[in-house]
Amino acid sequence: MFKDFFNRSSKKKKYVTVSDSKQNEVPAGIMTKCPKCKKIMYTKELAENLNVCFNCDYHLILTAHDRINAIADEGTFEEFDKGMTSANPLDFPSYEEKVQKDQNKTGLNEAVVTGTAQLEGIKYGVAFMDSRFRMGSMGSVVGEKICRIIEHCTKERLPFILFSASGGARMQEGIISLMQMGKTSVSLKRHMDAGLLYISYITNPTTGGVSASFASVGDINISEPKALIGFAGRRVIEQTINEKLPDDFQTSEFLLEHGQLDKVVHRKDMRNTLANLLKMHQEVNENA
């Protein structure tokens, strides 16, 4: 009897654990972990810092509406074509269900939000891609919405800013998706021929057909620090050329060094940088 008692006592844990029910008392979304340094931060404080990690300065995903709030004068953003949604032109299996899932998750109808806004009193057209929706992939609706806002800017003689964030063309729409590369580029050419400013603001990641079309043809090309920018993936390129690529290959800093970007801008400087560019070009246009 005593032997069994002591055996059981020796097996008792010498520390206190928190039960699963206690661990689950923290509401979802209160804390966010940095994907790079793994530091855990309060989501609200991180949002106030424009989703830039306090510890390692990593730029986390910023939603389309968070960017709107960051660079538009309060109450000036007017959204275009909000109700436009994707069809399934190729009858791709489960495509409608995947689109519906992303609509429910993000509150967006598609991977881009377009419209007009003012920044320090200057009106401009803008498109914000959101990588939470189908990884920001470019389908027919994304291309159509971008073309419509560009055409509005051309007609109304407005500068245009586009924030790209995309994995490339949307595979579920096949060649129809690839057609958007030429379609958007033609709209931008008309905007350029009218003597109007186009600022391409490239964010992480911008790859595939988006990087090879409208994201790379700005009058001014800007990016955020350490953003992944490129057409094909690193492994594909290395296997094709049979060479090892630099560690910083396809980063915004690499592109800046090789003349493919005009400036790498920290997110805290995003608003002031854009405001200054709009003011500079507004003065040129008014004096022309």
From TrEMBL:
The residues that the entry says bind Zn(2+) are: C34, C37, C53, C56
Co-factor requirement = Zn(2+)
Outline the residue ranges of the record's C4-type zinc fingers.
34-56
* Record's keyword annotation contains Ion transport: no
Q: Which GO terms describe its biological process?
A: fatty acid biosynthetic process; malonyl-CoA biosynthetic process
Give the EC number(s) under which this enzyme is classified. 2.1.3.15
Q: Where is the CoA carboxyltransferase N-terminal domain?
A: 30-288
Q: Under which pathway is this protein filed? A: Lipid metabolism; malonyl-CoA biosynthesis; malonyl-CoA from acetyl-CoA: step 1/1
**Cofactor binding remark:** Binds 1 zinc ion per subunit.
Q: Kindly state which keywords UniProt assigns to this record, in alphabetical order.
A: ATP-binding, Cytoplasm, Fatty acid biosynthesis, Fatty acid metabolism, Lipid biosynthesis, Lipid metabolism, Metal-binding, Nucleotide-binding, Transferase, Zinc, Zinc-finger
Q: Which GO terms describe its cellular component?
A: acetyl-CoA carboxylase complex
* Entry superkingdom: Bacteria
State one Pfam family annotation.
Zn_ribbon_ACC
Listed GO molecular functions?
acetyl-CoA carboxylase activity; ATP binding; carboxyl- or carbamoyltransferase activity; zinc ion binding
Cell compartment(s), UniProt: Cytoplasm
> Reaction(s) catalyzed by this protein?
N(6)-carboxybiotinyl-L-lysyl-[protein] + acetyl-CoA = N(6)-biotinyl-L-lysyl-[protein] + malonyl-CoA
Q: Which family does it belong to?
A: Belongs to the AccD/PCCB family.
Q: What does this protein do?
A: Component of the acetyl coenzyme A carboxylase (ACC) complex. Biotin carboxylase (BC) catalyzes the carboxylation of biotin on its carrier protein (BCCP) and then the CO(2) group is transferred by the transcarboxylase to acetyl-CoA to form malonyl-CoA.
Q: What NCBIfam families would the database entry show?
A: accD (TIGR00515)
* Complex and partners: Acetyl-CoA carboxylase is a heterohexamer composed of biotin carboxyl carrier protein (AccB), biotin carboxylase (AccC) and two subunits each of ACCase subunit alpha (AccA) and ACCase subunit beta (AccD).
Please state what the protein is called.
Acetyl-coenzyme A carboxylase carboxyl transferase subunit beta
